[in-house]
Fold this protein.
Amino acid sequence: MKKFMVGMAVAAALALGAHVAAQRSPVTLNVYSEGDVNVQDLWQKSLIPMYQKANPNVRLNLVFSSHGAGNQSTLDRMAAAQKAGKVSGVDLLEGPVDDAGAAGLMDKLDAKKVPNLTRTDPKVVQRVQGYGVPYRGSSVVLAYDSTKVKNPPRTLPALLDWINKNPGQFTYNTPDTGGSGNAFVTRLLRTGISAKDSDLFETDYDPAMEKQWDKGFATLKALAPKLYGGGQYSKNNVETLQLLGKGAITMGPVWSDMGLSYLKQGLLPDTIKLTQIDPPLYGGASYVGVAKDSPNKAAAYAFLNWLLTPGVQAVVVDRMNGYPGVKLQYMGKDVQAKFGDIAGDFSFGFSSKFGADMNRLWYERVAGTPQPQQR
């Protein structure tokens, strides 16, 4: 039944996209993307065949960068083309659209160009200054063993209280080895940051402001003896999931897409549940934008609009175990039910410079050791 419903939704999405993106003459869109093999499969096995079937005059040519290794060369190519007054050959870019936009290499998007952009969260779009559409996402959430925890903590104070009352049953990975542990540390440090300075920590840098982290670091230091094994941290995102899977811990922060993927594969027992706390842990979206020098902007806009239709978003959710790029209210009831407890909201992480300082100071002030040079 699920496959049938997704198929019907896809058919509807294809029909919607067909008349919007139809081209009078053949056009090729060069799509530069990045990520792991699952992202590559999403493009090659799902998105590209679906779109080309509905739009036979549009060819999507995927140029894939494994783990983003080719991102800088792509940006350099775009910048060199701009300087020379030539066309770079990049039409659509998934990845660092904000950096490319800041360098004047991306087209600014709005609802006139991509009407379905109105279905996304404006705050998420603004994170990249409007240079891309969010087509999928994930966030760090709280995973717990529902056989041992009937009423999981829903707030940060309640979570800290639970950890203190259940020694050895919680841990997180060191903040420089994975986003799930990093998000937990970031949330604790935010407890001392004034509301007026919150945006500064996300987008700017002033080391003098780091004194506002004192409260959070003190809490993390006091919490250490209550963690798994009397103060042991997991090595990375995966090890937290593994500890949950074998029952060594009862609760821990995990990435939503990784947690859902592990549950789908049976790598976690179905008794492990996911929830979000308030205020939420951080998350983020993956964006696709249009190159400023693309000669095929009309076709690119049409593709992005199609990418945000419910049927296509349902396929993205199914393949990636991630959140849809559009608000949940625009998705089917099955997707709403799947993500209703975790995808309501997420916060944002610190800027890269603040993040680097946070990692270093965590080792000094919490772990009591210098940060390893290589992990």
